[in-house]
Specification:
This protein is of the alpha+beta class. The chain contains 2 helices and 10 strands. The strands form 3 sheets. Strands 5, 6, 8, 9 and 10 form a 5-stranded antiparallel sheet that branches. Strands 3-4-7 form a 3-stranded antiparallel sheet, with no helix packed on it. Strand 8 and strand 9 form a beta hairpin. Helix 1 runs antiparallel to helix 2.
Length: about 210
């Protein structure tokens, strides 16, 4: 209230102000794994987060039979309300323990009044295959590539015969009209495509 004195009279005036306090919500943390079953260390961790006022810190926790370690993520944008970051599992562990490991993504918001609030993705398990399982999967992949190579070789062989027969028919007809020329172009283009696929499969097989 405000009081005023004019002569022998006093006046008072009151002002009512509405103050709306906006609640600071909890952050969110989500972890998505893209697992390489043959090379577990190449597994990609996609960490997504959000908060109405931004994130102050984030970390990855790796838990196994040998213990638990937590790694702070330094390149999180603190002022960003929504963001994501991708990391390979190999950035946090150099060798694989036996059994299962669990990975967790955690964030803390930058609430400087009530204190930082945390959110977690929860522990997500990654099963480590045994040496026998890795060998079996590797052999299975080799067999699949080998089968594909055989199919490609057979397809190229059949296509070469088809092109040869087609050219022979052209000679016997004594003329090469536009339609037949287009058919020959398509056959040659298909042959080139098969050769490229065969080359790619051969290189992949050599890398095994």
């Amino acid at each position: 209230s405000i009081f005023c004195n004019q002569g022998n009279q006093e006046f008072s005036t009151s002002y009512l102000h509405n103050i709306e306090v906006q609640k600071d919500e909890y952050p969110t943390a989500e972890l998505t794994l893209f697992v390489d079953s043959l090379e577990i260390l190449n597994t990609v961790l996609v960490c997504s987060y959000s908060d109405d006022y931004g994130i102050s810190q984030a970390s990855i926790k790796v838990q196994s039979k040998t213990g638990t370690k937590e790694y702070k993520l330094s390149n999180i944008s603190q002022n960003s309300e929504v963001g994501s970051i991708s990391k390979p599992l190999s950035e946090f562990i150099s060798s694989l323990p036996e059994g299962t490991i669990q990975v967790e993504f955690k964030v803390t918001d930058n609430d400087q009044i009530a204190g930082g609030k945390q959110a977690s993705s929860g522990l997500i398990p990654i099963t480590i295959p045994s040496k026998e399982e890795l060998i079996a999967k590797s052999n299975e992949k080799d067999e699949k590539i080998s089968d594909e190579l055989q199919k490609q070789l057979e397809a190229i062989k059949n296509l070469k015969k088809e092109i040869s027969d087609f050219k022979e028919n052209l000679k016997q007809d004594g003329e090469q009209n536009w339609m037949k020329s287009k058919q020959l172009e398509q056959l040659l283009s298909e042959q080139q495509k098969l050769n490229q696929e065969l080359k790619q499969l051969s290189e992949e097989f050599k890398e095994r």
